[in-house]
Design brief:
InterPro entries: DUF7315. The protein has a two-stranded parallel sheet with strand order 1-2. The model has no long low-confidence stretch (mean pLDDT about 80). By secondary structure, it is mainly alpha-helical.
Length: about 110
């Protein structure tokens, strides 16, 4: 077995970090604030739409407004996607987590 075989998990860890987008601190703060706000509004708004579509979860299945319920689910998914995408940004001074080259396993 070669050293390449034993370290087969290393390329997978590097692949996840390559999607990070390093931006200036001012832009990072702006992206973080507005993406979190948009994600929260999306998830809460989606639940509100779902609540209206099902009449506070008391409507029989035949009376559920299906298009409105699907719209609520889509809005919730959109809010989650915005949040997940926004977590890819980091400021230039931020560390890269466990992949930080100057930190060891006992640095914390």
């Amino acid at each position: 077995m070669t050293t390449t075989d034993t370290n087969s998990t290393e390329p997978n860890r590097d692949r996840g970090r390559s999607r990070d987008v390093v931006v200036p601190t001012r832009l990072y703060k702006t992206v973080t604030v507005f993406s979190t706000l948009l994600a929260m509004v999306g998830v809460v708004g989606g639940f509100a739409l779902l609540d209206v579509a099902t009449r506070r979860a008391s409507a029989p299945a035949s009376e559920v407004n299906v298009p409105l319920a699907l719209l609520g689910l889509a809005v919730m998914g959109g809010g989650g996607a915005v949040y997940a995408y926004a977590t890819r940004f980091r400021a230039s001074g931020m560390g890269a987590g466990d992949d930080e080259p100057n930190g060891g396993p006992d640095d914390g």
